[in-house]
Amino acid sequence: MDTETQTLINGQHSKPNQGLNNAESGINFDATQFQPRVRDRHISYGSINGAVPLPENNRDPEMPGQQTVVFRRLPQGMLTTLSSQFESLDYELCENKIFKEEELKKNPCSLTKQNATRWVVVFFIGVCTALIACTIDICVVEMTKIKYGFLKKYIEKCVKENCLYIPYLQWLGISCGFAFLASVLVTYGEPVAAGSGIPLVKCYLNGINVHRLHRLKTLFVKAAGVTCSVLGGLAVGKEGPMVHSGAAVAAGLSQGKSTSLGFDFGILKEFRCDQEKRDFVTGGAAAGVAAAFGAPIGGVLFSLEEGSSFWNQNITWRIFFCSMVSAFTLNVVLSTYHGQLGMLAYDGLLNFGKFPDIPFALLELPIFISMGIIGGLAGALFNQLNYHISVFRRRFILSRWAKVLEVIIVCSVTVSIGFVMIYFVNDCKPLGAKDAVEFPIQMFCEDGQFNAVAAMWLQTPEASVRALFHDQPGTHNPLSVGMFFITYFFLSCWTYGLSISSGIFIPALLSGAAWGRLVGLGLYRITQGAAWADPGKYALIGAASQLGGIARVTLSLAVILIETTGNLSLGLGLMLTLLTAKLVGDCFNSGIYDMNVQLAGLPMLPWSSPPMCHGTQAQTIMSKPVVVLKEVERVSTVISVLEDTRHQGFPVIFEDRFSGSQAKQTSFGALRGLILRSQLKILLKEKPFCSSPTGSTRSPIPLETFRMYYPRYPAFEDIHFTEEERASYLDLRPYLNPTPYTVPKHASLHRTFQLFRALGLRHLIVTDDNNEVVGMITRKTLARYRARICCGAIDFVELPLGGHGVPL
Amino acid sequence: MDTETQTLINGQHSKPNQGLNNAESGINFDATQFQPRVRDRHISYGSINGAVPLPENNRDPEMPGQQTVVFRRLPQGMLTTLSSQFESLDYELCENKIFKEEELKKNPCSLTKQNATRWVVVFFIGVCTALIACTIDICVVEMTKIKYGFLKKYIEKCVKENCLYIPYLQWLGISCGFAFLASVLVTYGEPVAAGSGIPLVKCYLNGINVHRLHRLKTLFVKAAGVTCSVLGGLAVGKEGPMVHSGAAVAAGLSQGKSTSLGFDFGILKEFRCDQEKRDFVTGGAAAGVAAAFGAPIGGVLFSLEEGSSFWNQNITWRIFFCSMVSAFTLNVVLSTYHGQLGMLAYDGLLNFGKFPDIPFALLELPIFISMGIIGGLAGALFNQLNYHISVFRRRFILSRWAKVLEVIIVCSVTVSIGFVMIYFVNDCKPLGAKDAVEFPIQMFCEDGQFNAVAAMWLQTPEASVRALFHDQPGTHNPLSVGMFFITYFFLSCWTYGLSISSGIFIPALLSGAAWGRLVGLGLYRITQGAAWADPGKYALIGAASQLGGIARVTLSLAVILIETTGNLSLGLGLMLTLLTAKLVGDCFNSGIYDMNVQLAGLPMLPWSSPPMCHGTQAQTIMSKPVVVLKEVERVSTVISVLEDTRHQGFPVIFEDRFSGSQAKQTSFGALRGLILRSQLKILLKEKPFCSSPTGSTRSPIPLETFRMYYPRYPAFEDIHFTEEERASYLDLRPYLNPTPYTVPKHASLHRTFQLFRALGLRHLIVTDDNNEVVGMITRKTLARYRARICCGAIDFVELPLGGHGVPL
């Protein structure tokens, strides 16, 4: 795997891994370098008082005595290293000659057709995403029925016959079997399918090329894996992975071909570029949320708030359409499945049940705010614990079998805790309540009663959330709910990050609903059953607060919860709680998704430049020396440049000044354009060589050919050259991007960042006053400079580049 | 008023007006040049076949035989002229020396404080916007009661005494009085307060400096004007203007000073720049919608979908908070006003009444789609008619008194039609229905009955919408609803664009609800009263469809309607209808807001570049010659440049090549930076002159001083200079932006547009290969190139610049 970085400044670069499958072997972790994030929170920012001497090139010669902010170099550690193995996507159009020639063939009619095609593609993305969601849902529902029906039978039988170890072992066996399957699928099948996939999709939309993210195999592993995880009874949800599935469907459908299956429909060729694909993936992610929660508006907002890094009014409507189609399809299929053909009665995978209209009074606002604070604190604690667990995993659980083993251990512990709680907590409730439990288990209760704790454990987490939202005030014993909360909180924290497909939405909502219901029960008791103190309402607020504290999403989560509960009157209350939870949580650490991104060392670029970076100049941070090519270059030179470097883009210059000593050089020639490694590879494969150094007269290779290779370019090693070919020339002029974006070397880091981020660039060439190339800035250059705002202290850090970086 | 355009290429420039107050005097309309938009729809795009000879500089010398898309020059007409009187805002930071010096004084603590301050400001924006909305609402409700109570008394009396002309004259008198007031306020007070203000806010957020848009006076005229308009019984709503009010509140509060009132709190100085102000205004617009409809999520989405041109995840949460605070405040105040202190029972200005849960079946989808098509067609017709009326107004209704007179005529016609309908249509319904009418008028009905037509006219349009949504199926006679729809449709079309503050939301919803109810009544009759054929449901779908067809908003409108009716089950149906209406309407013309923007010639930049513009180069469209300044320039030169040109920005060069003949010059010197007219004006006012041409040694004027003048810079005419001062020098180096964004002259229009639009630039300098200035690109340069997609045909046009352009 290659890197765009022209030179790794810090020299710490270790050999990158050969793929994600064996990425773990690349982990070269030095325990002495490890510094937990909390420790370096308050060190920092020493230069304001001028105490820190500045490197010479950081000073503006025209401003004597100028003091610039120094970005503190962080030691290599878990949250403080940027992986060098991730490449960027090209969101910038390469407007070369062959592109312009193709562009001239377009006419208004073809443009209209292209636009209409986009809507058609988006329609199918919505439909397919919903169908996948339905399949997962129906599988889970049907197989859960079988599993818990079977267990119920044996438990009932063994309570009488005093052989409870048998159903325990059965439960353990079934669950561990599914968990094993889930884990093997991911660990040995497609490691990139682990987790919820939301952080990876977010990174993809930010412009990072996460390998194998959208493969057909990944989609299959994700869908099958999450089904198994849920059936294994682990503390996971199936909603997060739907986002990844939707994104994968979008990336696949929009290309009109499948490289995995090796066929090409020959359609949708115009969408085979990173930018078009990105817009479809944004829609797919929204469709995933829409299908998961039956929340089309929530889907669009989630894509906007959490997923997307580039937004455009024109795609809003398409994304909205995609979400809507997805929600519709799901509704129709599930309605049909539940025997209501032609009705639209099933809103989503996760219908939390309609809430009645419960108004709330002004007096409740302090309660909501307090619950927001609790949720924020609990979420921050969850993230911090999960961070430490993840660090532990990255250090010690490296081999595949260890990962599978860990999953089985977690599964066993989950089942055992559940069984112990069912056995010891005797929380008996009368049968036949309005919201009937699916598998009421009597255990040691009297006839006509059932064990409420068993009901919590022996059903899907979704059903437990629904129960906590809607059960009558007397249904749950505060002690058992409290115990359930504590165990489930820690279990879900341990579970998230395992080598299985799993979402964090439902576990967070469930533990939040548990403590929220406790608050509600308390208020109900204090007010002696006042109408407003409805425990179900507080369970909803608690669930929102907990998830808000963990994931730090506000707007979209409020809409999703409104859409899944069908209740608008609580809207303002939910929003207030969610904003509070986010603000409180942000004081301690970042959201779980961002934390995952940082842990994996993914070079994600935030929305705005780090503050106070106006004094840092482009020439300070740029990579140099720059490897450049001439407009008509000798083939042997091109080959050796590709062999010797790992750079992804090469500035093309007018005059060759490359012969001198590189180290002392300050300028590398007058800029004529930029050519990408992928283009050079295709050119070497297609061999449009010429014998004269003045250039070729043959007609250039059409854009069609370049598009044919997208997105998997020919392996350089497979191409062989004759001596004659090596001695001939390659005319780069028809293929190079003649007007790449540049930045003057005196430009500030802020300005450079703005340009790079707003336009979604991959390479930014730094030029001097004479428009000569002096350096190169890539995603990794910029992502290394980061500001961390934490408890009012700002930390300016420069992250070292490292070779490790396992996907999430 | 000045312009950034360095040179008006087409030479058609007419003297701009001296302000908006007397803008009408500047209209220099040539009837022969007028071409309605429909006529030139299919002419165009002649160059694909190479038939049109290209100007020499449009050809790429390296691509022989290259054919470039030619942008057809349009004749000056109503929708085809770009006004030259609008300036741009500066969304780019000027990172000059004095800025960097100030930046160094900042520390993490001050940054945290600044961030917290933003939240506090946003809180107050939400509160104030809601308070204004409450005031308007309460005024309207109370005075409507008085007005219609009074009329009812006289009508009842005169029906018996056969003197109906008396209440007619009273109604006419009262309504025309209010309408006169509304019109005089706007026409003589603040013309920029006319209309809904949404198009202007949209333009402001796009980066156009619309003068007087956010003044305190404008806010007052807007609020008082819309109250009078509604009281005048005109076919207007008070919701659209709330967006403008919110924006004005945000722009005012965020600056910590009022230039109108002449005081400065000395706080919030760090927010006195265009970029910060823009973010607050985005929040204010959202708060306006939230307050108008009680729809906090709808507010955020409206701001996102329709208002904003720049989006950033970081501001999402602040905008959401602002919306939420606004909805909360409104709810609390209105609850208190209605005697329910401490409850949160009033969701918004426009509570359409809670809809019961009406599910819908798959079979209804074709009906919804058909209604979407009808709405799209009706909306397109509305826009087209309104366009012709607006053109007529701009040609013939120029003087202020004529504008006022037109308002009075429209008001008289409205009242007369209402009276005639009440008199002739005898639609009697029994009194005492569940949703009681506020002013039941018996007219010629029997005792115990009331005239249903009178009930429609003798109440606010909001109440009529509510009635159409919720009345029992038998309440309305199809004939009277149909007549009401036809008259109201044309009346509202005539009314929109009058010189009063008025919104289009409610009139559109009302006429849509009318025809929607007709559809519902038809279905109810056909199905003989099936449960799903609820006329109220179809009235809601019709209302959405009509407004969607006119304004072409989908996502936010769906959310607003869901939030105001409290009904989620119709969500998918609403979305489907709205998307259909938008797609159908877009086949014929653009939305009413965009049409208004085009009519006013506002240089708004769309989200993406015109298609097929890759062959057009920056050097073809750039303005030249460029007026440049030296780094240390003679004061007299600066004065004469400011006097002789109207440019807003001047590139600063290293070497003076300005002495030669301008016309033949191709390069104007090596670029060193960019200085703005506003900066030069302040410098001339502050006079930091030096006697030596090598530069000043004095410490430069601090940024504080520059900020003090923002946003109204010293009038150049008021500054006087001695001979000695004129002979001295001005050192521009500490003030100039040293690294302005540049674009190479060979860059395509697409690339230039991307850079300009994504970064919100005001000036883009075109450079040659040696980094020397060769031209200048501004907003107006780019806004002139436009693609119009209409019925599958794409029209590439180059708009001429004109001097007219009255605000909407």
Helices and strands of chain A: which structural class?
mainly alpha
Strand order of the largest sheet of chain A: 1-18-17
Instruction: Report on the biggest sheet of chain A.
Output: 3 strands, mixed
Strand content of chain A: 5-15%
Contiguous runs where pLDDT drops below 50 for at least 5 residues of chain A: 1-68, 803-808
Q: Termini of chain A, distance in Å?
A: 18 Å
Looking at the structure, what is the overall shape of chain A?
A: elongated
- Please count the beta strands of chain A (DSSP E, at least 2 residues each): 19
Task: Give average pLDDT of chain A, whole number.
Answer: 81
Relative helix content of chain A: 40-55%
Instruction: Characterize the quaternary organization of these chains.
Output: homodimer
Descriptive report:
Chains A, B: Keywords: CBS domain, Chloride, Ion transport, Membrane, Repeat, Transmembrane, Transmembrane helix, Transport. Chains A, B: Its main location: membrane. Chains A, B: The chain crosses the membrane at residues 119-141, 162-186, 285-304, 316-338, 358-383, 404-425, 479-497, 568-585. The structure is a homodimer of 808-residue chains. With 808 residues, the first copy, chain A, is mainly alpha-helical. In chain A, strands 1-18-17 form a three-stranded mixed sheet. In chain A, strands 9-11-12 form a three-stranded mixed sheet. In chain A, helix 8 (296-307) runs antiparallel to helix 17 (555-565) and helix 17 (555-565) packs antiparallel against helix 18. Residues 1-68 and 803-808 of chain A have low confidence and may be disordered.
